[in-house]
């Protein structure tokens, strides 16, 4: 979706170009049937509307939805909305002609032939595709201890050499160096990407330019080139932050487009470049994009400080895009959790004084605020209700909520399983005019994860539409996995007998919003993944089943406790000093 009222645009990157500012079953097997009682399509009596129908009748149908985590089955009513929702067609992404012309002219001025640059770009593309986030100090220490213990167990000569006191230190140093060599071949050899020449910047551009542009353009969130391609002169101010001078100047060359050899003017006169972010937060931007930048930060605290600074510079939307690797998704979700929690963390002493002045503080409220098991969000909502919406509670960061892709601000249901990623497809743009694609059609595919934050509180009473994460076609049916507002991940099937529902869902791609209005009309017993026994049931069960259920549940570890322990054990690395203010370059 495009926000046409955008006044300013800030994009940032650290070491990258653009983002600065089905399942097949046996054909003989029948498609799974939807929950049904009777078909109401040919009945004229509207008194039967409350009954369940599996076929399409009265602009709706009922399907059986299953919770992806608990196994709880529900009856889901899908109905066509009164106003049809508009969707942008996701076509094959391709670079704009101005970008192609600018890139071609910039490559001609390099000291190396374009074919040589393309050969090195293919190597870098494979490196970027498999690049992982830097490991924490705790992960490195744990891996080093494990490697050293394996070396000690397998090499018997080391045991004999350690018996000599004079050679102990030399042997220990040798073991340490050997362990470091093994770790360096794994994911523990992270280094920030640097560019020492214009040719290095050109290699990076050839390796990542079309794919990174496609990631942003698919969601209508884009770097400066894609933003200009969408909004043009409607954006009053573009600001691109790039520390490396070679990459900054190469990006300027691309921005000149077809006028590279002529006047040398950029395709948009409202584009400004900075070497670093200014510390002052007086100037705010309606849209701030951080694309493939977090992976260049050495530690979790550095990423957190960057997020805080960018959030202060954000007026409306903050977009963060990273790769589809699980560690990238994990880092993204930690920042998501931090921003949502910091938006509701307040000074208890200040709030208590305000409540005391207004004679609202009693013993019950004091105990409520002192209870550690109650979240900061619940306390924030309770205090806001007492003080009224006109009173602004000072928090650590300005409140915000997840605009996309999550339809909720709760814990991510995919966090413990796999990354929540989305596919994108683009046309190759190579200097040697060859192709790397397996079907030899000149197209490549990739995946990425993203999150968009919006400032302010989530609108009350406004229902959030579920988002389709997966869609697979099986004989006579479409199988979908959607992320819902209050019911986690739900799996359901839409058969061909639902007619209009099936036709509308057929042309929706994963990552888009569900094209129906949904309502859960009946909920069954909640099933445990490990035991298969109902955890909660609306119907009274036998005492033997209840006792077995309580016994099994008591033996299961607390997932929240495991996550809390994992986060508390993470080592924090030192923070990099922020850069000083510098003038703009145009």
TrEMBL record:
Keywords: Iron, Iron-sulfur, Metal-binding, Mitochondrion, Transit peptide. One of its GO terms (molecular function) is metal ion binding. GO terms for cellular component: mitochondrial small ribosomal subunit. It comes from Ditylenchus dipsaci. GO terms for biological process: translation. Residues 565-586 are annotated as: Disordered. InterPro entries: Mt_RNA_Methyltransferase (IPR052571), Ribosomal_Rsm22-like (IPR015324). Mitochondrial ribosome (mitoribosome) assembly factor. Binds at the interface of the head and body domains of the mitochondrial small ribosomal subunit (mt-SSU), occluding the mRNA channel and preventing compaction of the head domain towards the body. Probable inactive methyltransferase: retains the characteristic folding and ability to bind S-adenosyl-L-methionine, but it probably lost its methyltransferase activity. It is found in: Mitochondrion. This is Uncharacterized protein.
